[in-house]
Amino acid sequence: MRRILITILLVLILAPASQGAEIVVFALFRDVAVITVDGQRYQLRTGEATPEGIILLSADSEAAILSINGQQERYLLGSTNRIPLGPSQPATPPVAAEVRIYPVNGMYMTAGSINGYPVRFLVDTGATYVAMNENTAKKLGIDYLRLGELGVAATANGQVQIWEVALDRVKVGGIELLNVRGAVIEGGSPEEVLLGMSFLGRTRMLRDDGVLLLEKKW
User: Which of 50, 59, 95, 105 has the most CB atoms less than 10 A away?
Assistant: First the structure.
């Protein structure tokens, strides 16, 4: 019995501690990245994700911007990184609710969700609300025709109808806000969901060497 206990202790002592998944940036092209996650190879286009939830936000010949566990970082071609994934990631205290958004072709775009549905946001400080077109609203299950407040907005193409709605949850990275004002715009524009001031105004916004930092106000 003693020998069995000693063997178990030795196994526990010698077993390597989990250091997270090994992510290697294997090849890069414009808007395409080939990465490996613990040896499993994936080819991702912008906006696509691996089964582990790693999202490619942008890529060029030098680096890829990946969203991992809600955090965005820049990974160089050929780099090898150890990243905790999923439940193995240590809990993040509320004070650390910060999101880093890197510019893509001069615009700040980021993955997020509305009412639990994944979307792609375009940061727009000139937009009053979190704004989307009618098709996007329908895909997200937003019953704007019944629950929305009808109004009119001026755009570059003239006046359009809008429906003001309440969005239960809007999340970007580790920042989740409840009861955010939104707007559904008549027609097919904008193509991306605009992350407007009804969300941004409830965060602290800073720019650090071109990177946009969002920090939740508590």
Answer: 59
Q: Which two tokens stand for residue 217?
A: 């106000």
pLDDT of residue 7: 44
Instruction: List domains and CATH numbers for the chain.
Output: 2-88 (2.30.30.830), 94-216 (2.40.70.10)
Q: 48, 67 in Cβ contact below 8 A? A: no
87 — pLDDT class (breaks 50, 70, 90) = low
Note the pLDDT of residue 69. 82
> What pLDDT is stored for residue 105 in this prediction?
87
Q: Concatenate the DSSP letters of all residues of the chain into one string.
A: -HHHHHHHHHHHHHSPPP--EEEEEEEEETTEEEEEETTEEEEEETT-B-TT--EEEEE-SSEEEEEETTEEEEEETT-EEEE--GGGSPPPPGGG-EEEE-EETTEEEEEEEETTEEEEEEE-TT-SSEEEEHHHHHHTT--HHHHSEEEEEEETTEEEEEEEEEEEEEEETTEEEEEEEEEEESSS--SSEEE-HHHHTTEEEEEETTEEEEEE--
